[in-house]
Amino acid sequence: MVEAPDDDFVWWKHGVIYQVYLRSFQDTDGDGIGDLEGVIRRLDALVALGVDAIWLSPFYASPMKDFGYDVRDHVSVDPVFGDLEVFERLVRAAHRRSLKVIVDFIPNHTSDQHLWFRESRSDLSNPRRDWYVWRDPAPGGGPPNNWRSEFGGPAWTFDPGRGQYYYHAFLRDQPDLNWREPRVAQAMEHVLRFWLDRGVDGFRVDAIHHLFEDAALRDNPPNPDWREGMPEAERWLRIHTIDQSEVHGPVAEMRRFVDSYEDGRILIGEAYLPLDRLMAYYGPAQDGFHLPFNFHLMSTPWTPRAIADLVSAYETRLPAHGWPNWVLGNHDRSRLASRLGPTQARVAAMLLLTLRGTPTLYQGDELGLTDVPIAPDQVRDPWELNLPGQGHGRDPARTPLPWTAGPGGGFTTGTPWLPLGPVGPETHAEAQAADQTSVLAFYRRLLAFRRSSSALTRGDYRPGEVTARTLSYDRCWRDERLRIVLNLSAEPETVAADGDLVLSTGRLIPRRMGRISVRGGEGVILRLAGP
Ligand code: GLC
Ligand code: MG
């Protein structure tokens, strides 16, 4: 096998990405909402954790109906988060520490307060009239077809001024841009340029599978598997509203543009799709995303067989030039430690950080945070507000980080925008940093070991034994061979392995060579002897 030259082994292949959900990371001005200054203040904590890049959730001027995913002005910073000067300071401060900065890019929709939409809706003679997806009412009146919003209700809203409906995959306050209008692509390229020129190292591209809808506006067919109690949006198969093949054109344009900059800038795509559909987002010839986010670990049953099959399926389908990546949590999903419990959350972290490919961590998972219950009068998430009590609420996974002891947990001196979970010596970062048995200390050890190991950052993945309780695989690079054994059950199990135990999700107890007993809920990394 021919080895890639080392300069091809770029930062985003060996690095670990850390998602900063800005509103809940660190507040510095006492308004209860995290800000860019707060990120600067905590950069050293991220260096100590051992990550390589931060991805910042949107900080652009926004009415915050969807907490920044409704952009009013793509090239300005919302005052709640700071200003352009602070942003530029943040980029410099991060780069001084060898941390890369990835920002959110939201091409599918804007806020209804964006100048483009205000012009587009103003009248039919406006030059921006076609920048959004407008249609006449259906012949008998009412919306043009049966498409539904992801957040509940119809995806069409009537605009009395224009006498037409506009399409919105998400909130009515988030009209979809019309990517069949070439000037939209040009305008969005200017947005990319603006931030690239300010030194960002790449973009996480939001909701990319929503970029186009069927031009003929055909109705989505009913989902035969839909049952009462399932989300309303799943009542129809979204064959005409997501993952249309036209999407790959603009993605290739974005890629070409980003690649025209030096220093390995990166494009990450957010698309919740089955594996075979997802792989198309790499592009046929390195002309798609560097990393189309792989979310499948978040939805696959937590059993050794299911996880082993997922990894094999993913590795097998990956295009020859495609670099893998894995995700265990984000601001849209229930927290890892709530989904799997505290013990298996550590095992999952070991899985994430020892699989082949780039891992993305979600802030707070390194502290073992769990979903925080949100009382009905504290709900902020528009999805939950639209469809209360149906389990869509994303607030529980978005609560502020506890940094130190005290009422605001060191997050804020004011009233936090969402309540913090318990702030105790078990949870806050300062106490965890001083306790070798804490989740944070475990993450630091794991990340430090990963950084030191070529087998983990660039080695082969070799599937191993799968039992009812455990999942094993090897990672190998030249003469470095590691075996990872993860016990997904609560019962101990003995596995064959001739090697040295280098890391455990729990206490590192030296164990007999040749065979190793893995405790229930334990994951271990062994260095194998011999070739
Ligand atoms: C993405 C974001 C989510 C947002 C949605 C609409 O899925 O992660 O938070 O609500 O896009 O922009
Ligand atoms: Mg769209």
Structure explained in plain terms:
The protein is α/β, with parallel strands linked by helices. About 25% of the residues lie in helices and about 20% in strands. The chain has helices spanning about 10-15, 35-40, 45-50, 85-95, 115-120, 180-195, 250-260, 275-280, 305-315, 335-355, 380-385, 430-435, 440-450, 455-460, and strands at about 15-20, 55, 60, 75, 100-105, 135, 155-160, 165, 200-205, 265-270, 290, 325, 360, 460-465, 470-475, 480-485, 495, 500-505, 515-520, 525-530. Strands 11-10-9-5-2-1-13-12 form an eight-stranded parallel beta sheet. A five-stranded antiparallel beta sheet has the order 14-15-16-20-18. A three-stranded antiparallel beta sheet has the order 6-8-7, with no helix packed on it. A hairpin with a 4-residue loop joins strand 7 (about 155-160) and strand 8 (about 165). Helix 6 packs parallel to helix 7 and helix 10 packs parallel to helix 13. The longest helix is centred in the middle third of the chain and has 19 residues, at about 335-355. It is globular, with a radius of gyration of 24 Å. The two termini are about 15 Å apart. The structure holds alpha-D-glucopyranose and magnesium ion (MG).
